[in-house]
Amino acid sequence: MELVTGSTTLSRHHITTFQHSILEWFDHHGRKDLPWQQTPTSYRVWVSEIMLQQTQVSVVKNYYPNFMQHFPDITTLANAQQDEVLSLWSGLGYYSRARNLHKTAQIVRDECLGELPATLGELQALPGIGRSTAGAILSLAQQQPAAILDGNVKRVLARCFAIAGWPGKSSVLTQLWSLSEQLTSTVRPRDYNQAMMDLGAALCSRSKPDCRPCPLHRHCIACSQEQQHLYPGKKATKKLPHRHIKMLLIRDAAGRILLEKRPQTGIWAGLWSLPEATAERQAHTACHQLTGAQPQRIHTLEQRRHTFSHFHLHIQPVLMHLTKPAHRVMDSERLVWYKLDQLNSLGIAAPVMRLLKEIGEKT
Ligand code: SF4
Fold first, then answer.
1. Which of 98, 110, 223, 301 holds its CA 20 to 30 A away from the CA of 64?
2. Residue 263 falls within a domain, yes or no?
3. Are residues 254 and 125 in the same domain?
4. Which atom of ligand 1 approaches the CA of 156 most closely?
């Protein structure tokens, strides 16, 4: 295989050799027993692909079977309540993925006779399905020669062909897509795409690529120049801003905690969380407004930090005990009293769940 620099047009010979190396490696070392590889329908592949965005295979393997057991087909998912979907997603994070999954299932039920479409354009028109996810559905489920470009594939291609720059930049992305499209096998698209993902995960890892057993090592530009660490290029780092909030753990005489549903937009949208105090609404006032009662005891707990992609959130938990019964009945759309041992049935953001579990263990 000859090296190609400064060009994304590959010769037929180059493409054939690359595909052959990858597929031969896949036949011996590729993953073939992942839960979503069994009966790979479009629905099953789609759910797995959405779960795998920003989440490791080892984590998804623990969530996927339970999710599929509850929602074995797209119509069952479409007919479920959003709360049910979010609760089964709890712990996977990035909840907009679950909300889009649910929304898309409803569109497919209502407008596509309950079947995911079979073309790139139609798939990409659905919420939460990008070009790579659409390519994965078509190739892994339907053996269509559609290219993919997830994080693993970007890394392998950027190193093999020494594509400089951060892959989030459109000029870099265009080059990587061009390579991926040229190299995707038309004969074994499912195996080829799975092989590229497996190779990226098993050998071409971010920090320690294992080049010796890699089927591409004799032909990989980054490897031959010992410059694997330069590819793919990194995004210029930006200093994240800090935000501070007080989260109120209002506990009634029966040991229940007051939860509040978050709005449908913004962080943790649609999930259950804890009421918050603000500069304008102090903790005491908030407690009285929400429950009609004043707390008898208050403890300020240790502060903790959660980092989102765009800011650091500093959470100051405040535990407030009510010894008298709350006057207001809160089981409404937005507020609910919940026992700590029942929390698993709700969609709750991971940092809030961690805090609640901590409180439960201490009492
Ligand atoms: S040779 Fe090394 S750097 Fe190149 S694709 Fe293989 S593992 Fe990655």
1. 110
2. yes
3. no
4. 5
Domain endpoint, select from 230, 255, 274: 230
Known catalytic residue at 49: yes
Mutate to test the pocket of ligand 1, among 25, 29, 154, 160 (most ligand atoms within 8 A of CB): 160
DSSP state of 216: T
The answer as to whether 6 is a domain residue is: no
Burial class (CB in 10 A: 0-12, 13-18, 19+), 321: middle
Name which residue sits closest to atom 8 of ligand 1, judged by CA: 204
The total number of structural domains in the chain stands at: 2
Domain boundary among the residues 184, 210, 230 is at 230
Through-space distance between the first and last CA atoms of the chain, rounded to whole angstroms: 65
Residues with CB under 6 A from ligand 1: 156, 159-160, 203-204, 209-211, 214, 216-217, 220, 222-223, 228
Residue 336 CA to residue 330 CA, distance in Å, equals 5
Read off the pLDDT of residues 45-95 as tens digits, 9 standing for 90 and up: 999 999 999 899 999 999 999 999 999 999 999 999 999 999 999 888 888
Mean pLDDT, the chain, rounded, equals 91
Residue 68 domain flag: yes
Q: How far is the CA of 180 from the centre of ligand 1 (A)?
A: 16
- Closest ligand 1 atom to 211 CA: 2
Q: Which of 49, 84, 276, 302 is catalytic?
A: 49
Separation of alpha carbons 304 and 322, rounded Å: 24
Hey, whose CA ends up nearest to atom 1 of ligand 1? 217
Do 296 and 348 reside in the same domain of the chain? yes
Q: Which residue has the tokens 């594939």?
A: 153
Q: Is residue 7 part of a domain?
A: no
Find, among 152, 130, 252, 129, the residue nearest to 206 by Cα.
Answer: 152
pLDDT(210) > 90 = yes
My answer on whether 196 and 156 are in the same domain is yes
pLDDT at 283: 86
- The pLDDT tens digits for 119-129 are 999 999 999 99
Residues 293 and 332 both lie in one domain: yes
Residue 94 CA from chain centroid, whole number: 5
| CA atoms of 127 and 40, how far apart (whole Å) | 21
Q: Name the pTM for this structure.
A: 0.80
